[in-house]
Amino acid sequence: MSATATSNAARPLRLGVSSCLLGAAVRYDGGNKRDRFLSDVLAPYVEWVPVCPEVEAGMGVPREAVHLVGDPTAPRMIGTRTGRDHTVAMRRFAAARVRALAALDLCGYVFKKDSPSCGLERVRVYAASGTPPPSGASRRTRASQAGGAPTRRGRGLFAAAFTAAYPSIPVEEEGRLQDPLLRENFIERIFCYRRLRSLLVRPTRGALVAFHTAHECLILAHSPRAYAALGRLVTARGGARPAAHARRYGDGLMAALAVPATVTKHVNVLQHIAGFCRAHLSSGERRELATVIDDYRRGIVPLVVPIRLVRHHVERHDVAYMKMQVYLNPHPKELMLRNHV
Ligand code: SF4
Q1: 179-191 per-position pLDDT tens digit
Q2: Residue 296 CA, ligand 1 centroid: distance in Å
Q3: How confident is the model at residue 130 (pLDDT cuts 50, 70, 90)?
Q4: What digits encode the pLDDT tens for the residues 136-154?
Q5: One domain for residues 49 and 155
Q6: Distance in Å, CA 185 to ligand 1 centroid
Q7: Range of the domain at 305
Q8: Which of 15, 17, 19 to mutate to test the pocket of ligand 1 (most atoms within 8 A of CB)?
Q9: pTM of the model as a whole
């Protein structure tokens, strides 16, 4: 994790985004790929930092379409009509732009899927033949002239540069964000990353312990193994200085939260919280809570239902350890993300 955190907890939640996803007319054909969730639903909660690598690298609008060619681990960016090679210019641009983004303290990035610049995964990479396809050629013709059917193993050149520079920053593609589970996971991670950046401003041992304590249930819902490892890391008395220690913790935390939460893991956490409330509840309330958690396990109600009930008991009975758990309020309720998982 980069150590450039500089401001406090009220910092804006700033996200990088492929410009076309917010409706900017920057695509090769002058169009856009506006995504309603990003531009309408999420927008009030974040500050967008739009980037169009191809336009900012000087390729213009409209422009010749490009695709990736050659070795999927180090592909070249080639014009589909002229065969013009944009690789060096794009790599140079990407390195400089990615460096400049460090000053903006991004908490996440949403990339446009399938793009030879912005795609995060499964971007088409064509085998190299050295012969540019003719003007106006169909995709099939282009594929055959470029050396055959593409593999789906590429990553856009800008996305590759960004993820290599900032491996802990949460990233996603707009296509994957259509999936309610992946959407909830990504939003949870960007809010968590912002809290982490605030911690890193003054990462004392006491602050790290408090941070970890508040995130225990959240981590448990993703990875019980990471929960144990991070707990050991927090309490370890080693030679590492607090800042380095906290950065190591932050890297481990973000890796843990990238592991998908599952129904089974949520049920374990909910039962764990119910255990803390147990002494305060009547037998009828205990039965009701157990039934609601089981309804969630069986897929009859979404996660928001048992969460609401445990939160009600935690607040009503002032269960101190649980009241501080981020798990019960990981992102704005208005986004209604847990109504669909
Ligand atoms: S996918 Fe990336 S390069 Fe292509 S138009 Fe959108 S922002 Fe620009």
Answers
A1: 999 999 999 999 9
A2: 40
A3: very low
A4: 555 555 555 555 678 988 9
A5: yes
A6: 24
A7: 263-339
A8: 19
A9: 0.91
